[in-house]
Design goal:
Radius of gyration: 17 Å
Number of strands: 7
Order of helices and strands: HHEHEHEEHEHHHEE
Shape: globular
Largest sheet: 7 strands, mixed
Number of helices: 8
Strand order of the largest sheet: 3-2-1-4-5-7-6
């Protein structure tokens, strides 16, 4: 099967939005891993006085993770799916959170303009048609020295992790998606898109090409170790801000 893109993918998320929270809640560690990645941004003073972009916020799980890590930050949460965004906006938020309906490819736009002190992108980059263009856009949305955390399915590339991923998708995720809405297209897309996307090493190289030299790569815990990673980077500042050049950065625990 082919993966979904642009309007077709947004429509699939719209259809799944009503049951999405229940499905992800059944994934052991889903919310804890988001909090782990958001916390790895290490924003000072609980984010006081900082603007943070939650890019691809979905139903707000990543937004909640950001608020846990930086409760004093001003968070702009953006998503291309109107259905997912409605679910997020309907929740109670004890913090400064604003929701904007927009695709990552369309930024900046009113309500989601830089500069941001930090960007958190969870399960997003794999889903866009042109990941390199989106990462370059993220770079421009960050202030010099601003931090980026990408939380993404990026397999190590070993046959073992590919096998585990396929077994979980076809044994649990896709059947559960079919039962919840009678339409498993989003979850078949999830399975295929992860297999087709970068390995952890290839994604580090993609960040560097976009002018976002990786600072650190770290795995998550549990069954998704080697399947989901946090990538931490920052926009170079001052004289080092050369546009498209990025260094290798150091690596921590690639899975």
């Amino acid at each position: 099967m082919t993966t979904l893109r642009d309007g077709a993918l947004a429509a699939a998320f719209d259809r799944a939005s009503g049951s999405y929270d229940r499905l992800v809640a059944a994934n052991p560690g889903y919310h804890a891993h988001l909090r782990l990645s958001a916390g790895r941004l290490a924003l000072p003073a609980q984010g006081a006085g900082m603007r943070v972009l939650d890019l691809g916020c979905g139903t707000g799980a990543s937004t909640a993770a950001l608020l846990a890590a930086a409760p004093r930050a001003r968070i702009t949460a953006v998503d291309a799916s109107a259905g997912m965004l409605r679910q997020a906006a309907a929740k109670r938020w004890d913090g400064d959170v604003e929701f904007v309906h927009a695709a990552a490819e369309d930024l900046p736009r009113p309500g989601a303009e830089g500069p941001f002190d930090a960007v958190f992108a969870a399960y997003l980059v794999r889903n866009v048609a042109d990941p390199d263009a989106v990462l370059r856009s993220v770079r421009e949305l960050l202030r010099p020295g601003g931090r980026l955390a990408v939380h993404e399915y990026t397999l190590t590339g070993t046959p073992f992790h590919r096998l585990v991923w396929s077994a979980v998708c076809w044994g649990i995720v896709i059947p559960a998606g079919s039962l919840s809405r009678g339409d498993a297209s989003l979850y078949r897309h999830l399975w295929r898109s992860v297999l087709d996307f970068d390995t952890a090493g290839a994604f580090r190289e993609r960040l560097a090409r976009a002018g976002l030299p990786p600072v650190r790569t770290a795995p998550v815990t549990g069954w998704q170790r080697g399947i989901v990673h946090t990538f931490l980077a920052e926009r170079p500042g001052g004289a080092e801000d050369t546009g498209g050049r990025g260094g290798e950065g150091s690596r921590e625990g690639g899975g």
